[in-house]
Amino acid sequence: MGEEPPAKPDQPLTEAIRELSEIVRIVMTSQEQQTNTHERVMRRDLRWRNIRAALICVSVVGGALLYSLGLQRLFAPTKFNGPYAALVRIEGVIDAEQKANAHKVIAALRSAFEDPRAKGVVLLINSPGGSPVQSALIHDRLLSLRAQYPKTKVWAIGEDMLTSGAYFVAVAAPYVCVNRSTMTGSIGVVMEGWGLDRTIGRWDIERRIFTSGENKRRLDAFQPLRPQDEHKASELLHAIHEHFIQAVKEGRGPRLKGSPTELFSGDYWTGEQASSLGLVDGLCDLDGVIKQHFGVEQLKDYTLPPNLFTRVANSFGVLAQSQFDTQFSVAQPRLMP
């Protein structure tokens, strides 16, 4: 029998190196798999975190938009077990950039008048007034709706303030009442501005402005007041005041008891004094009016909430800045006390 050839001296070393290499490969493969698995888990977690964040943002923004559009009433409708009156609120300054603007108030009034189940319309006002144009637009549309729905009962109720532009709106209602302490009246127009020409001169500041037309920069706060500019402003205020006075005379008619000089001086009174002057029909509160004059105890509120963009603008002071810029650029007539 032949003998097996002797093993080569380096064979055990080669086998050991091969085994060690296999172990290293297995370890490296395992680490690579663990790394890949960890990366997949991290990516998955990051993806779900982004999805959750996006869903939260969409929910918040969507909810705010729904609320701003007044659609919350579709999801939580008010249930009425009996008759009711339609309510429209006017709160705060009446201005195109505020929640009490003609567009929103008129839309609410239209919906209130179009409600066939409502026993009438109540206009609840708590406002110092504001823009003469916005006030006149609401006043005129209220008269138009009354003519379109002659059988609809309408009352205007003043709370803390029923002055100037707010009173302009109220006289479009056939009946107006207030609390005994309600600040009422102020049938006048005001235009405010600043005279800063000497201030910038003191600090040696040069203002550069270019216009086409000699009257383009009337009432510029940084220029001396010219006599012709003061005359122009007086003409403008007088015309708006006459419009206001005419609306009050048409709305209140023979019920006005004071002298025109007193009534239209721009002064304001308490609710009791306004009642004695015929500016309002008497003293009241909301519950008393709807029970006594409408025969109901419930109200359906048609007031539109302010939109999301107005809220955001107010939060960041954009509207305040806009008002600031306006005050320093050109004075505007206002129906304010």
Task: Write up this protein.
The chain is of the alpha/beta class and about 325 residues long. Helices cover about 50% and strands about 15% of the residues. It is built from 12 helices and 9 strands. It has helices at about 10-70, 70-75, 100-115, 130-150, 165-170, 195-200, 225-250, 260-265, 270-275, 285-290, 310-315, 320-330; strands at about 85-90, 120-125, 155-165, 175-180, 185, 190, 270, 300, 335. Strands 1, 2, 3, 4, 5, 7 and 8 form a 7-stranded mixed sheet that branches. A two-stranded antiparallel ribbon has the order 6-9. Helix 3 (about 100-115) packs parallel to helix 4 (about 130-150). The radius of gyration is 36 Å and the shape is elongated.
